[in-house]
Amino acid sequence: MLRKSILAIAISTAGCVPMAAPDVPVVTSNLVSSSGAVLGTVRLFSEPTGLTIRIDARGLPPGMHGVHVHSVGRCDAPDFKSAGSHWNPTTRQHGHQNPAGFHSGDLGNLGVGPEGRLVVGLLVPGARVADGSDGDGPVLHDADGAALVIHARPDDEKTDPSGNSGDRIACAIL
């Protein structure tokens, strides 16, 4: 009986990886629409391999949308231009399919279902917070912050500077 219990424990824990740090967000912020309506929350977590952005939102338009980290932590509606350009500490071109790219803030495309719901986690590889406690990569969460921006259309992953992803329709301060 003891042998079966040990085997059951071994099987149930296979593939489990212990967390390196508590699951406590560095930042929690509202995701807002261009009309100022709160669509949900965005949380930023420090991980051993970078920063994870977790989005939990309702009320987004269904379909594919480009998503980027922008360089300034401001979300002034209605156009969110206050968020600045894409976060690009490596001074590259835009898009994962661009031979001269990609920006560190290029996070690809997200699919929003017909009900407008989005729940997703995105890794920003190598990024870190400003205090230096999480590695030596580029600082995302610095003095002027950063913003997560969801665009109206899909990102084509190659056209500089924004992948033809259209208007900024939702924004959260990181």
UniProtKB/TrEMBL annotation:
List the InterPro entries hit by this protein, alphabetically.
SOD-like_Cu/Zn_dom_sf (IPR036423), SOD_Cu/Zn_/chaperone (IPR024134), SOD_Cu_Zn_dom (IPR001424)
Look up keyword Signal and say if it applies.
yes
Q: Which UniProt keywords apply?
A: Signal
Q: Which CDD domains match?
A: Cu-Zn_Superoxide_Dismutase (cd00305)
Task: Tell me the ranges covered by the Superoxide dismutase copper/zinc binding domain, including all copies.
Answer: 39-173
User: Which residues does UniProt call coiled coil?
Assistant: none
Statement: the UniProt record of this protein carries the keyword Iron: no
Protein name per UniProt:
Superoxide dismutase family protein
Record family assignment? Belongs to the Cu-Zn superoxide dismutase family.
Matching PANTHER family: SUPEROXIDE DISMUTASE CU-ZN -RELATED
The signal peptide stretch is: 1-20
Write down the SUPFAM superfamilies for this protein, in alphabetical order: Cu,Zn superoxide dismutase-like (SSF49329)
One Pfam annotation reads: Sod_Cu
Q: Give the source species.
A: Sphingomonas daechungensis
